[in-house]
Amino acid sequence: MLSSELPATTHEELLALQKNSATKQPVHDKKKPKYEKVNLPSLLERSDILSNGNIWTLVPKNAILYVPQRLQSKVVSAPNGKFVNWQTFLTKNPAWLSTHPVSLKNSSGSDKIDFETFEPVKQRGKIIVAVHNKGPISVTPGTIEMTKTK
């Protein structure tokens, strides 16, 4: 049978088909899904703030591995000045800020950072921030062995 031989469907028949199909099988539910509001901590609450008085940056909580007594004022509770990204902040503060590369296993705590490795880093007298691929990363508390093993 050729398409020209098919009986034509009238406009009324199409409207009836549309009405029947719309009531039987809605294409979508017009009600909005209900979501529970989850109160997540803000970025500032999940970060530590490092500041030199003029500029500041954020690092994840537990990314700061060591803070000498004389530099505790550089870790602040509220930002002051202009925000800059981590790389900019690091390059502008080399006198008191340094990094220590860690692996993902170090970060998760499955591999410890031993005393012999970390003690010379502490001797620099700078704030030490854990980094992975040049970016600051949290380290599970207790990952650094603070005493010499026999």
Q: What integer is the average pLDDT? A: 85
Shape: elongated
Radius of gyration: 30 Å
Major sheet: 4 strands, mixed
User: How many DSSP E strands?
Assistant: 8
Order of helices and strands: HEEEEEHEHHEE
Beta fraction of the residues?
A: 15-25%
Low-pLDDT sequence parts: none
Helix content: 10-25%
Q: Please give the alpha-carbon distance between the first and last residues.
A: 93 Å
Q: How do you describe this structure in short?
A:
The chain has 150 residues and is an alpha/beta fold. It is built from 4 helices and 8 strands.
Explain what this protein looks like in three dimensions:
By secondary structure, this protein is an alpha/beta fold. It has a domain at 47-136. 23% of the residues lie in helices and 21% in strands. It contains four helices and eight strands. It has helices at residues 11-24, 86-92, 104-108, 115-122; strands at 47-51, 55-60, 64-66, 75-76, 82-83, 97-101, 127-132, 135-136. The protein has a four-stranded mixed sheet with strand order 4-1-2-5, with no helix packed on it. A hairpin with a 2-residue loop joins β7 (127-132) and β8 (135-136). The model has no long low-confidence stretch (mean pLDDT 85).
